[in-house]
Amino acid sequence: MTLIPSLSYRRRQAEWMDDPAADAGDLRRSLAYIRRINRLLGYTRSTLSHLDRFSRHWNPGQTVRVLDVATGSADLPNAILTWAARKGFDVRVVGIDLHATTLRIARESTSGSTRVDRVHFVQADALRLPFVDGSFDYAITAMFLHHLDDDAAVAALREMARIARRGVIAADLLRNRRAYAWITLFTLLSGPMVRHDARASVAQSFTKAEVLRLRDAAGLHFARYHRHFGHRWVLAGER
Description:
By secondary structure, the chain is of the alpha/beta class. The protein is 42% helix and 21% strand. It has one domain: Vaccinia Virus protein VP39 (Rossmann fold). Strand 4, helix 5 and strand 5 form a beta-alpha-beta unit.
């Protein structure tokens, strides 16, 4: 048995955090780990950098509505609202997640905050978003698409494009042996859920060629591929 498996193809497997019956304590620790990695490696900043770029075309005083798909513990909504307050933008965010416990953790992350009136959470399926066409300005997602098979990932991107009037930002991990080695080292002292899911995430993430195929199949021809530090890719574009 090799330390690093062959990554020439997606090695699909269920991540423990996706189980509706996942232990709440383990799930909290896993989400806390994801938040730390996002901060340490600049993953949240990489997503925000594209929203910041798009904001150059916003009109003064306009309200901008953002949907965060598979919000997790809401680190992206919190980061977006902090950034918006600093810039003086009126941004409202809706975060969706299918996992009830995860959504409860997301709500807790903003309860009592001054931004609580600017963020709302909904339990919903990313493949069947309960919103009418063009009901948001932007749809974003991060660290989610690798949880899906290829057809479902395309469906999720299509749904995001359907409800987003202006643009889409989708970010995730690149699949390669160096990323797998990195994540293995980062999680050596973590709990079993974190160790399992971190390696599974890289093993079933995408190469650049696969990302571009998903983009084209979903009809997101306006979204450009960007490579970021930490084995990270972002599809970002405005219509």
